[in-house]
From TrEMBL:
PANTHER family: ACETYLTRANSFERASE, AMINOALKYLPHOSPHONATE N-ACETYLTRANSFERASE-RELATED-RELATED
Record protein name field: GNAT family N-acetyltransferase
Keyword DNA damage tagged: no
Keywords per UniProt: Acyltransferase, Transferase
InterPro entries: Acyl_CoA_acyltransferase (IPR016181), Bact_Acetyltransf (IPR050832), GNAT_dom (IPR000182)
Domain N-acetyltransferase: 7-167
């Protein structure tokens, strides 16, 4: 599986709900923390990223390898001030999440997934998109390259909330899938 090439990035569908849950775990467990599926889904602050996928207004993309197996995903949904995500900015600003299966990491898939999602967000009329990135997560460099800027602290002051104005994002021809 790990040596296969990513052949396409497609829209996330209702049938991808379980894969997005797996990707949520991959995003949560990037460092030392080890959440189980049960722990993540039992925590309302975490389950909100995947429960009821898709809701109206949700955006998502899934990368598939040559065998048609999902290799990574990027998705975004809106939250309310009463039930915010970790990277909440405003109700009209979707918050994104992204993760890649371990066997497919380090091959440039992150930028491809993010650019595909950001393009779909633009097409849907989204003006800004946010995210939360834990201190020390190397993905922060990718987010900065894509034009995200830190606008606050969240998640118990152990993570930055970052925001991208889509009209201002730099275009990366290598990653714009």
């Amino acid at each position: 599986m790990g040596s296969e090439t990513i052949t396409r990035i497609r829209e996330a569908t209702p049938g991808d709900a379980e894969f997005l849950t797996r990707m949520l775990l991959a995003a949560l467990n990037w460092g030392e923390e080890e959440y189980t599926r049960e722990q993540a889904l039992a925590d309302p602050a975490l389950a909100v990223y995947v429960e009821g996928w898709p809701r109206p207004g949700d955006l998502g993309v899934v990368a598939e390898d040559a065998a048609g197996e999902p290799a990574g995903a990027a998705w975004a949904r809106r939250f309310t001030a009463e039930a915010p995500g970790d990277g909440f900015v405003a109700p009209d600003v979707p918050e994104l999440a992204v993760a890649i299966e371990p066997a497919h990491r380090g091959r440039g898939l992150g930028p491809r997934l993010l650019n595909a999602l950001l393009r779909r967000a633009e097409e849907a009329g989204v003006e800004r998109i946010s995210l939360s990135v834990d201190d020390g997560n190397p993905a922060a460099r990718l987010y900065e390259r894509l034009g995200f800027v830190t606008v606050g602290r969240g998640a118990g002051d152990e993570a930055d909330t970052m925001l991208l104005r889509l009209a201002d994002r730099p275009r990366d021809p290598r990653g714009d899938a």
